[in-house]
Specification:
The protein is an alpha+beta fold. It has 24 helices and 15 strands. The strands form 3 sheets. A 7-stranded mixed sheet has the order 1-13-3-7-2-4-6. Strands 5, 8, 9, 10, 11 and 12 form a 6-stranded mixed sheet that branches. The protein has a two-stranded antiparallel ribbon with strand order 14-15. Helix 10 (308-319) crosses helix 12, helix 13 (394-409) crosses helix 17 and helix 16 packs across helix 23 (577-596). It starts with a strand and ends in a 15-residue tail after the last helix.
């Protein structure tokens, strides 16, 4: 049970950061308040000086003796220290830490707390001479150590009048790291210069005692305005309680993360998959998130549209007993073992999507990326990623091809995705206790169809909507591929194209005969076929009767029509389109019902019995 706690001062907050009583979880993003040359850090300090409130933060209270469903919150999850310094232009990784005492895990507030710490206790390294852009070589000459200073004599003007106080990171080689730095500024069109005094913000920590600060100010011979400015800074840091926070006492990582997701609405909101990606990449020793992004890009360059969440889901689907996005799944042992398995996981995904591409799938025709998961599991745990496109596995490819199309047409991976994915994995459940090699030696299309509820779909009610699909629509190619024989795209240079049996140019002639069917019916699946690009070029706008005659001069006409799913025993002239439409509608309906009906009814309870208990479960590692 969580609640808002009494706010604390900025000084107390930075003390807790310094003593590692405030830590960061692995799923937190990196420090990003470094844009516009630290403009947001300056604005934060200005807001505090003007007594503007800053939004509340979210902390998770982790205790050494925490009891509950997560009994090893300290040992099994990764935590990081706050950044103690920041170098402009360069990627920074927070130092990992294994906590041994109670601490607060900062779920929301990292950017503000890091900014406060850098300004008061830390430092930054800035490009030499204040250069505004361009990454330089990482040398002390190019990047100068700098501390935050407060201008005591000037106030902000220009475009940012709401920023009253001027803060700036000044290079140590300029200021000498002195508490008071005097900058000499030339006044335009005047024969004399002006001295501007800057106060080193971090030095305020020396003056918790206000009387000691007064002695310092007198010693430095500051004027009334300058003294008032420094005293205001001291009040902000020590006396006012600006750090408001909600403390969550959850004893499970899942509850804490759910609270975080609901509260964290600033910027780009993190999704569960984003956080799991952060955890995996932070725990890997050699690999990082770029390896996952690179795999995503390689797959998308083939013409697909996947994101990193599919890759995270694949890792869980292949190796973890729980396929859903849960923080508690990302234990140190599990993540370390996934790093070892990453080369084979990567190969499986690249080879599988390459196969799907050559089967004719792409971002348009693959409407549910999660439907690929059962195919990935079969290929990966059989160890056939490099062989799947060989002739010996053609039966598997045919089964995968037809099942993937059916799964999308029937919406098997729509709706409750978590349940659907978990059920589909039950077809391989024994694979978790004996991950390689997989004992199943044929792609289990019927079992998957049954487990995903395809046997519950009323195919007769679905077929009319499938036959209404128009040429070129997202699902039209999938319906036609299901109707026509499997084409092994790895063995042909031709692509498969949609073609009107009665050509488009004949529609006006049909209308002239007084036909009853609309263009939408003429342009639907009922009047479409699937042809190779070469055959379609040869057809070249011939009428249906002309095309059939041209292809049956030396062969059986009925056999050709049956192969092309053209009704036999009727006229194929455009004037008889009404009869043709009715007969082909009936022909395609019968074929689709045969294809889409699940042949093998599987009792889901049979597969549930395969799920091993928590005590006996063995993933890729023993958790």
């Amino acid at each position: 049970m969580g609640k808002f706690k009494m706010p604390i001062s900025i000084y107390e907050a930075t003390e807790k950061i310094y003593s590692n009583k405030f830590l960061l979880p692995a799923f937190q993003r990196e420090f990003v308040w470094n844009d516009k040359r630290f403009g947001r850090i300056y604005r934060l300090f200005d807001s505090l000086m003007q007594d503007y409130p800053i939004s509340s933060m979210l902390f998770w209270n982790i205790k050494k003796d925490s009891e509950g469903s997560d009994t090893h919150l300290m040992q099994d999850y990764q935590y990081f220290e706050f950044l103690k310094f920041y170098q402009e232009d360069y990627h920074h990784t927070n130092a990992s830490i294994i906590p041994t005492e109670d601490f607060y895990c900062v779920l929301d507030g990292q950017q503000r707390l890091t900014s406060l710490y850098l300004g008061l206790r830390g430092y930054v390294a800035v490009r030499k001479g204040g250069k505004k852009s361009g990454k330089l070589d990482d040398t002390e000459e190019n990047y100068r150590k700098a501390h935050l200073y407060l201008n005591l004599d000037q106030r902000k003007d220009g475009d940012e009048k709401d920023n009253w106080y001027i803060f700036k990171f000044l290079e140590d080689n300029v200021t000498g790291n002195e508490a008071i730095y005097t900058e000499t500024q030339k006044i335009p069109y005047e024969p004399y210069n002006r001295d501007i005094k800057w106060f080193k913000v971090g030095d305020i920590l020396k003056y918790r005692d206000a009387s000691r600060l007064d002695d310092f100010l007198d010693y430095e011979n500051l004027d009334k305005q300058e003294k008032r400015c420094v005293r205001r800074l001291r009040t902000v840091v020590f006396d006012e309680q600006h750090i408001n926070y909600y403390l969550d006492d959850s004893d499970t990582a899942e509850k804490a993360v759910q609270i975080f997701l609901r509260i964290n609405n600033g910027g780009k909101q993190l999704k569960p998959a984003d956080m799991l990606l952060s955890i995996i990449s932070s725990k890997w020793n050699i690999l990082n998130s770029r390896d996952i992004y690179n795999l995503r890009n390689e797959i998308n360059n083939m013409g697909f549209k996947v994101d990193e969440s599919l890759i995270i889901r694949t890792i869980l689907y292949l190796y973890h007993r729980d396929t859903s996005f849960k923080i508690m799944s990302m234990t140190n042992n599990f993540v370390n073992e996934t790093e070892k398995a990453w080369p084979s996981i990567r190969t499986t995904m690249v080879k599988t999507f390459g196969m799907l591409k050559r089967m004719g799938f792409d971002a348009t025709t693959l409407t549910a990326n999660n439907a690929v998961l059962p195919i990935l599991y079969y290929i990966h745990h059989r160890g056939i990623a490099n062989d799947i496109e060989k002739t010996s596995f053609e039966a598997d490819r045919v089964a995968m091809y037809k099942w993937l199309i059916k799964a999308q047409l029937l919406g098997s991976f729509n709706g409750s995705v978590e349940t659907t994915i978990a059920l589909s994995r039950m077809a391989y459940q024994r694979g978790l206790t004996e991950p390689t090699p997989l004992s199943i030696t044929a792609f289990p299309a019927d079992e998957l169809s049954s487990l995903n509820g395809q046997q519950k779909v009323n195919v007769s009610e679905l077929i009319p909507s499938l036959l209404k699909i128009q040429k070129g629509e997202r699902l039209s190619l999938m319906v036609l591929r299901l109707l026509y024989p499997y084409i092994d795209h790895t063995k042909t240079q031709y692509t498969m194209e949609q073609d009107h049996l009665h050509p488009q140019k004949s529609f006006d002639d049909y209308v002239a005969t007084g036909g009853k069917h609309t263009w939408e019916e003429y342009n639907s699946i009922v009047n479409l076929q699937l042809l190779s690009s070469a055959d379609n070029e040869q057809k070249n706008g011939k009428t249906l009767s002309e095309w059939v005659e041209a292809n049956t001069q030396t062969s059986d006409k009925n056999a050709f029509c049956e192969k092309c799913l053209i009704p036999t025993g009727i006229s194929l002239d455009i004037k008889d389109f009404d009869t043709y439409y009715e007969k082909r509608y009936e022909l395609l309906s019968t074929k689709l019902e045969t294809i889409l009906s699940v042949n093998k009814a599987i009792q889901i309870e049979t597969y549930i019995d395969r799920v091993v208990s928590d005590e006996d479960a063995v993933d890729i590692v023993d958790e």
